[in-house]
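Page 47, continued from p. 46.
Same chain as before, 222 aa.
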Amino acid sequence: MWAEYAKASQSANLLLAETSSYWGRYYYSTRYGMNSVKRDEIFGPNVTGGNWAFRNHTYTAGTNNYMIPKINEYFVRNSVNATIGVGYIMVPLFTVEEVLFNKAEANNALNNTADAITDLNSYAATRIVNYNPASHRITEAKIKSYYGTGDIQEGILKTILDFKRAEFAQEGMRWFDILRHKITVTHYTTTGEVIEVNESDPRRVLQIPESAGLSGVEQNPR
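Result:
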């Protein structure tokens, strides 16, 4: 499954890039992985009323650490007999799924809500286990009921963001939506501390390297 995700022969992959990286061996580590609570949050109930196929493909990478096989590493040895080398991966930089989500969001922003819902149904039909249009088809009424809103555009946007969160789990794509839509992020530490990072929190901005201070550049506030 690792190898299949980034194959050039996969019609869903529109742009692939090779790079030296150890992402393939660390993206599902305990630092970046999903525990059972986060897995159930991402791949739990959804507006279709059906079950995500993703949940059937979550594998354990240690105790209470779940991941979806996506990024496959190709290790290149420094020489034939060497035990050290460099890891390489193929990364899907642009996919049909992302295009479809962007199209749905654009339709929604233009108030073409019927077209946006059609886009979402096109996606759901390929991701819901035993998809049945009679029971799983997304409608305006379903969206309003599921998200508890009378604003269909707000409901559609929430649907898109939830679908993207599931589709791109452990790829880092969620961060762009968090920034664009000013979503508050909540972290729960192993000691029970709750850390909330809202849209104005300075920690959302990457820190300038300390070395830049040699040129008089001040670091970002924290």
